[in-house]
């Protein structure tokens, strides 16, 4: 009598165990601070710091009614030269008011800068007389010759620019296909549960990154309305948020 080895039952048990393990996993995709997270290529990456998490949250959900703490107005940079700086960093800066009533911090080479108007940001913004002095200085000069560095506003509302939720919504079908492929690879014995979860995570990261590269067009903010400058950038100007998208895997 020849007894054949049962290979089917062990295979079923092995596959069942991996599928159960896969089912117990929770895959998180986004900007994260956890230690065990991975990029689109599966390599381990460092967690995002508090500043980057705040930036991501503001882009994803927006922020309403931002007001200054120690000044009358917020100084919004509207030129690359002014990014990361304040009006105090530009000694020759004066404040002028447009016909529509908007206040701008501007520079012009060779212009006589009213000392009081350029002394401090707070005094220049809080005094209508100083603003008029700035207007007189540039009364007969072309706007094309001015460098508009700042727009002054009493408050600002940052519009929502969802890249995680919107990216998932646009790539939902790809996520479903990634899950189906992962399950088939586990059933065929080619992948473990961890392999399957990593595949789904990597696909999720690529979907969000592709959405960022494609461009996000939020409603017009106060800065856009009052300067005419578009804020329809793709969140990819520095690549900071793009490269911070990761996935992590936890078991329930």
Keywords:
two-stranded antiparallel ribbon; 10 helices; single chain; four-stranded antiparallel beta sheet; 252 residues
Q: Would you give an account of this structure?
A:
- Helices cover 41% and strands 18% of the residues.
- The chain is built from ten helices and ten strands.
- It is an alpha+beta fold.
- The longest helix is centred in the last third of the chain and has 22 residues, at 193-214.
- The strands form four sheets. It has a four-stranded antiparallel β-sheet. Strands 1-10 form a two-stranded antiparallel ribbon.
- Helix 1 crosses helix 8 and helix 7 (172-187) packs antiparallel against helix 8.
- It starts with 7 loop residues before the first helix and ends with a strand.
- It folds into two domains: 8-65 and 158-251, no CATH class; 68-154, no CATH class.
- The model is unreliable at 111-140 and 230-234 (pLDDT under 50).
């Amino acid at each position: 009598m020849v007894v054949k080895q049962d290979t089917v039952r062990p295979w079923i048990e092995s596959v069942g165990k991996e599928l159960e393990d896969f089912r117990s996993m929770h895959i998180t995709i986004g900007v994260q601070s956890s230690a065990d997270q991975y990029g689109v290529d599966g390599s381990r990456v460092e967690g995002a710091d508090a500043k980057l998490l705040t930036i991501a949250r503001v882009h994803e959900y927006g922020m309403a009614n931002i007001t200054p703490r120690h000044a009358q107005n917020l100084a919004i940079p509207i030129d690359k030269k002014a990014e990361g700086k304040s009006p105090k960093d530009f000694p020759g800066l004066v404040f002028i008011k447009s016909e529509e009533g908007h206040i701008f911090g501007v520079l012009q080479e060779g212009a006589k800068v009213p000392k009081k108007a350029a002394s401090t940001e707070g005094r220049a913004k809080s005094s209508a007389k100083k603003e008029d002095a700035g207007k007189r200085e540039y009364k007969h000069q072309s706007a094309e010759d001015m460098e508009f560095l700042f727009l002054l506003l009493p408050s600002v509302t940052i519009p929502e620019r969802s890249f995680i939720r919107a990216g998932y919504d646009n790539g939902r079908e790809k996520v479903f296909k990634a899950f189906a492929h992962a399950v088939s690879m586990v059933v065929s014995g080619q992948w473990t549960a961890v392999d399957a979860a990593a595949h789904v995570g990597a696909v999720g990261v690529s979907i969000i990154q592709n959405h960022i590269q494609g461009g996000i067009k939020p409603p017009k903010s106060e800065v856009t309305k009052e300067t005419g400058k578009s804020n329809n950038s793709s969140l990819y100007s520095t690549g900071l948020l793009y490269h911070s998208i990761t996935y992590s895997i936890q078991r329930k």
